[in-house]
Amino acid sequence: MTQPRSTRVFALVTILAAIYFIAAKFGLSLASVHASATTVWPPAGIALAALLLLGYRVWPGIFAGAFFANITTAGSVWTSFGIAAGNTLEGLLGTYLVNRFCSGLNAFERAQNVFKFTLFAAMLSTTVSATFGVTSLGLGGYADWSDYGAIWLTWWLGNVAGDLVVAPLLILWSANPRIRWDRWKMLEAGLLLLFVFVVGHVIFGWSPRVYNRLPFPYIPILVWTAFRFGQRETATASFLMAGIAIWGVLQGVGPFVMETDNESLLLLGAFMCTVTVTAMTLAAGVSERRRIEQKFELVVESAPSAMIMVNHEGRIVLVNKQTERLFGYARGELLGRSIDILVPRRYREQHSQHRGAFSRQPSVRPMGAGRDLYGVRKDGSEVPVEIGLNPVQTEEGLSVLASVVDITERKRADDQLRRHAADLESFSYSLAHDLRSPVLSISGLSRLAMKDYAERLDPTGRDYLRRIAGHARQMDELIRDLLTYSRLSGYTLKPQRISLKAVLTDLLRQLTEEIRRSGAQIDIQEPLPELLADRTVVAQILSNLLSNAMKFVEPGATPHVRVWVEDNGQFFRLWVEDNGIGIAPEHQEKIFQTFERLHNPESYPGTGIGLAIVAKGVERLGGRKGVESELGRGSRFWIELPRQSSASGPLPGISSRG
Ligand code: ADP
Fold it and tell me: How far is CA 101 from the centre of its chain?
């Protein structure tokens, strides 16, 4: 049966009050500078931990515990009230600050937050209870104002130590009470505990020897705990050491023994606070690093592709389970081995050269652009792969994290697609080729009929015949363009050194009739470079661009066409500018596709294949194309060709029909 909420809170408050009371009584029993002020004040830590863990609502427990502990020790109802108010406010303020600035209960997870915890909770909030407490004593006449400073300092330091030594212990154990150690870790923990007591005994038990003047042996123990265990264990070790040290001081032995007990405990408190903060920061730093490593491992492990990290010597230092699955090796068989184990023998030498080049210019990029990559499995079979490279700077030098994806399926689908495309192009080529001769016959026959039988026909008959001839001519043009387009895919390029000037001069000669008809003025600007490319394809591209530039002008307007070339280093960019009708931005992409025309054939005759030939030709030459235009303001078409055209080979399944 669940208890009602208020009963539960009441029970919590009562238990807290009782614990606070006992801890406070213990602390006050060690008071020496004043009956109410002590350098050992664990209740501060209890209050802070309780408020952080259980919420602000349990504050009455702190108030009641503090009030009763004080009223039963020294002072009046009023001074006890003031002191209890100070203690409660300190806890509330500390809790607020920890929640606000130090991630609340996670304050000890990060080194930065440990510092903030020290500053805000331990050092700042504690000034409240010291000030409230000592002022209450002064006002009540229980302390001399002249002792205000000394009592205040003792009070404050006792609270600081309570917050630093006790609060982390309670918070960390409540957050994670389970111990998951294997046998060796248990043994190590036992050994650690033994060391704490032995060192404690040496420092505080053997009096008066030289080594018990030195509290330093505590430090390596805390460092050991921080490195090998964690924040929770470090807080525990600190707490135990503080306990032993207090006991030592009370026995009058150990390095902290001064003239008075109060001085001794002050010194001890200062020492313990410093050491604890250092150790807790260290533990947080170590655990932060461990968490980052775990996260990294988790990311690598759960990656959908095989991940392989290779160090500067080319040895494998990390693999995930996808790597095991892809290559058929167990992790242990790969770690420490050269990456060559996964590279087919014939590529190994090349691979090591590429690795050298990568380490000279590391960047995140895909491996082997433009080449087919293969990995070799344990059973010797090869697998086509795609590899992404990420340079990772480590202390030992440059490592590379490679993500490897099996592309067997994709390659199969790609090949199939290419074959289908090739079949389709081959089909359209044959179709166009076979259609051409009947079309030419129709054209020829209709011309003959016009010549020999025109007088015997009435005007309607003659009109029909003229239209048949016109359509046949159009059909022939379409078929010719289609043939040029289909041929481009399978055509075997014959790169040669060509002069653009010569190509253009030839073209203008071929276009003489068109130029004359349109009255076009064509301005070809020098210098025009030489390049290594296939002359036929370059000429086809330029012919289409020039024809369009002369064709797409307002009716009656004189076309002005300007051609020039920019040298962009590795590329030449050739521009063809006209003063024509322009192209709206939304159409500028699609006009490069087959049969995309923006105008009716009456005003601007054409086949809709010219720019598709341009696009395919440029692609075959390894270049790019584009257009800049505005409606009514002319167009500037450009093509970019490499100085040395690294032409792509013909598509599989298609032979050259040059
Ligand atoms: P075609 O010239 O046979 O119509 P293209 O593929 O060469 O086919 O061009 C496709 C379309 O792009 C043309 O129909 C036209 O609408 C538009 N176009 C091409 N070049 C120009 C240009 N220089 N100015 C304006 N529009 C153009």
Answer: 27
